[in-house]
Every structure is written in structure tokens, then in C-alpha cells.
Amino acid sequence: MNATSASAETFADALLGFTIPARHARGRLVRLDKVLEEVLAAHAYPAPITHLLGEALVLAALMGGLLKGERAQMTMQAQTEGGIVRLLVCDYRAGAVRGYCDFDAERLAGLGANPTLAALFGEGYLAITFEPEGGRRYQGIVPLEGDSLAAACETYFSQSEQVPTLIRVASRAGAEGRLAAGLLIQHLPDGEEGRERLHVRMDHPDWEHVALLAGTISHEELLDPALSLEAIAWRLFHEEAEVRTYPAVPLSRGCRCSSAHYAAIIARFPPEQQAAMRNDEGIIAVDCAFCSRSFALAI
Ligand SMILES: [Zn+2]
């Protein structure tokens, strides 16, 4: 194999992009360690929710990492009517991920340690929104079916973008905190304009070959802290003529909340509603759902 790599190997809190030119395939690998701990530290979530949010943050980085540019953003939002998890939101922008989950703690406690996706969400849907830098925003909505968030994201790519896509995500609680990782690979026989195609072809020989190799990835490999993301790509595709890896993007926990941001939102409310939000000291208190920071706005 002729591997082209421009950087040192990366192990965690990073996003690695690669392509297999002869197969018209592109991939992303993500592993979250300290960044995941930072996101989770802002909340006191029970184990099933930290597991879910870990997977969702990996998916946000995998999908957001498909976009180019510092201002491009990807948002995924899982929502249900009457589900135990009412809302799960994650987004990605320029290597920064953030997310939170709103759920019914009492009903969740009755589910046991490893609830299924259906038990958590009931009948729900997943909205995926891409906002490319300088491009047109596009959104797809798919039912929250299958046994994982990753499966629902695969459905999004096949239904909304007509791009065959394989996604694997693994998450586990270890001695030093939670670790989550994932692989995304997709077939773009018509280049980056692939999403304009009208029919998805899942049986293209190049895609069948690449999907077969990618599908051999195990949860243990994805989560093995001694195995670099580059090593995973090489291990999976070492028989290919060329695998091109790009410099890894460091990931961070990011939140764009600020006093100015909330002041601008509150300014849109009519004066009487703003008055109703003020406490006895004339302060409007706002908590950021993503990072749990509190803002005391004297406006
Ligand atoms: Zn925030």
C-alpha cells in the first residue's frame, strides 16, 4: 500500500479524514477521550445518557468533519413525542463539539442499565442539518429507527443524500472515564457532487468492496487507546492501491454561548415579556443547555 500521511499519528480527541481514490470512497475516523469527559462534566447524566451522548458527539464529529471551512456547521437533533429522551442535540463547528440531552429521569430509572434506542426514544425522528461555509443550508429528517443513532444516520445519507454510507460507533466507560469512537465511510462515485444524484446505488462493486472491509472494524479496535486512527485506516484498507490520509483535526469541547448572544435573543421579546423574565434585582438569568454556564443579564 502506498500510504500518504502528512502528520504524526493521532490517538484521541481528533478527527482523521482519508480517501481511497481508486474506490471513490472517503472516510472519517474520530476518537473522543478528554473532550467527551469535558462535555459530560457539565452535566450529571446517568449512564445510559452518557453512553447515548458519547455516541452522538462522535457522530456529530464524523458528519461535521465532512464539511470544509471554519464557519461550516453540522447539527443533529433527535426528538420525540412522549419518549423518555425528549431531545438530544449535538453540533460540530471547526473541530468543536458540544451537546446536551433532555430526558425524563424518573422513567429512565425504570429502564435498567442498557435500554434500547426504541425504549429511550419511542417514536422519534432525527434531523440532520448541514450549513456549509458559503453554501446553501440543507436538512434531512429520518425516523429514529434501527438499533442505534449510527443506523439512523446511515439512513439519512442513503435517503436524503443518496450516498451509500457505513457508520460504526463504539462507546464504553473505562477506569479513566468514558471513551467513544467511530468510523464513517461513504462512496462518492460522482465526486463531491454525489448528493445531487437521484438514485442511490448500494451494489456498486467498489462500494461493496470498501463496505466489506470497513465492516470488519470491531468496537475494541475503535476504542483501543494504543491503536492510532491512522493505524486503523491502514489496518482496514492496507490492500488498497492507495489510502490518502489528511492531517488530523484536533477536537475540542466548544460552546458559542455568551452574554451578547443571549442579550440579542432576549432583545427580540416584547418589553412586557422581558419584564416578566427579570428577577427582583432586575436581572434576567439564563442557563446554557449545552455547557450549563449561567448568565446574569442586566439588560
Ligand atoms: Zn454554552
Quote the CATH topology of the largest domain: Hsp33 domain
**Can you name the CATH architecture of the largest domain?**
3-Layer(bab) Sandwich
Strand content: 25-35%
Rg of Cα set? 20 Å
Helical element count?
Answer: 10
Summarize the helix and strand pattern as letters: EEEHHEEEHHEEHEEHHHEEEHHEE
Q: So, the CATH homologous superfamily of the largest domain?
A: Hsp33 domain
User: How does the major sheet shape up?
Assistant: 7 strands, mixed
| Mean of all residue-level pLDDT scores | 90
Low-confidence segments, given as residue ranges, are none
Keywords for this entry:
seven-stranded mixed β-sheet; six-stranded mixed β-sheet; binds zinc ion; 299 residues; alpha+beta
Description:
By secondary structure, the chain is of the alpha+beta class. The protein folds into two domains: 2-253, Hsp33 domain (3-Layer(bab) Sandwich), CATH 3.55.30; 259-297, no CATH class. The protein has ten helices and 15 strands. The strands form three sheets. Strands 1, 2, 3, 9, 10, 11 and 12 form a seven-stranded mixed beta sheet that branches. Strands 8-7-4-5-6-13 form a six-stranded mixed beta sheet, covered by helices on one side. A hairpin with a 4-residue loop joins strand 4 and strand 5. The mean pLDDT is 90. The chain binds zinc ion.
